[in-house]
């Protein structure tokens, strides 16, 4: 692929936005691993739907994303086509540039990792989500407060103090973190999900590591202490997290 790919990502606040969100990270990690040229078009939360509709991007399958009709990431490929959803972006990359492979054909494994990470993130949400607006530009922060209050049934500040927060959040996360530990322990040939070779499944986990670190450093440190494999995996994926803009 000789032409640049455009990645539509959610900006952090400040003059030099950086990637912070789990879903865009999955696509960005895949691009960084492939080593293909791309540039970022930062798109704030309130602008996503109108922009993507203008580009003719089909809405999310409600079974894939029940929370948003349009969401980041999306990507524009050299042939002019648009793809929304990090997994679909990774699958397209594997077709256009087969090597190095993201092993997107490992569908059942990707599903398992995805559900496990979503379980971890969902259980820990009262510890993580209230910090997100502090990462965002003002318009996006306002949008995040409003939409998440609707999703969680209460303002984020109340969500943090609810009976789902604190140690209850950790208790609810335990089975998901245990499954994640098991997934990383299944292959003894290396630190990745497949053992010695990285795959898109690893980038789902790596994106979660970074999101966790940026929203709650104490929670990140606590998770890293649960199992040595977590720290080894984070360290092994660090080089693909370096390009974040």
What does the model show?
Pfam families: GST_C_7, GST_N_2. The structure is a single chain. The chain has a four-stranded mixed beta sheet, with helices on one face. The chain has two domains: 5-96, Glutaredoxin (3-Layer(aba) Sandwich), CATH 3.40.30; 107-240, Glutathione S-transferase Yfyf (Class Pi), Chain A, domain 2 (Up-down Bundle). It contains eleven helices and four strands; from the N terminus they run βαβαββααααααααα. The protein is of the alpha+beta class.
The CATH first-level class of the largest domain comes to Mainly Alpha
Strand order, sheet with most strands: 2-1-3-4
Largest sheet report: 4 strands, mixed
Overall strand count: 4
Give the C-alpha Rg.
17 Å
Q: Which range best describes the helical content: under 10%, 10-25%, 25-40%, 40-55%, 55-70% or over 70%?
A: 40-55%
Looking at the overall shape, the CATH architecture of the largest domain is: Up-down Bundle
Tally of individual domains: 2
Report how far apart the termini are: 20 Å
Overall morphology: globular
Helix count, per DSSP?
Answer: 11
Low-confidence stretches: none
């Amino acid at each position: 692929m000789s032409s640049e790919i455009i990645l539509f990502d959610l900006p952090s606040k400040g003059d030099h936005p950086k990637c912070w969100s789990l879903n865009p990270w999955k696509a960005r990690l895949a691009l960084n691993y492939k080593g293909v040229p791309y540039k970022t078009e930062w798109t704030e939360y309130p602008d996503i739907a109108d922009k993507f509709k203008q580009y003719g991007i089909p809405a999310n399958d409600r079974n894939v994303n029940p929370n948003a009709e349009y969401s980041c990431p999306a990507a524009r490929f050299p042939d002019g086509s648009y793809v929304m959803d990090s997994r679909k972006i990774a699958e397209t990359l594997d077709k256009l540039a087969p090597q190095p492979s993201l092993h997107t054909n490992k569908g059942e494994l990707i599903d398992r990792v995805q559900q496990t990470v979503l379980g971890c993130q969902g259980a820990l949400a009262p510890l993580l989500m209230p910090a997100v607006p502090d990462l965002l530009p003002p318009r996006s922060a306002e949008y995040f407060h409003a939409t998440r209050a609707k999703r969680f049934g209460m303002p984020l500040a109340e969500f943090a103090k609810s009976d789902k927060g604190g140690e209850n959040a950790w208790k609810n996360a335990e089975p998901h973190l245990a499954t994640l530990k098991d997934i990383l322990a299944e292959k003894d040939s290396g630190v990745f999900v497949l053992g010695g070779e990285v795959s898109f499944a690893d980038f789902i986990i790596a994106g979660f590591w970074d999101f966790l670190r940026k929203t709650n450093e104490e929670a990140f440190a606590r998770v890293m202490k649960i199992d040595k494999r977590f720290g080894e995996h984070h360290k092994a994926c660090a080089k693909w997290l370096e390009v974040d803009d």
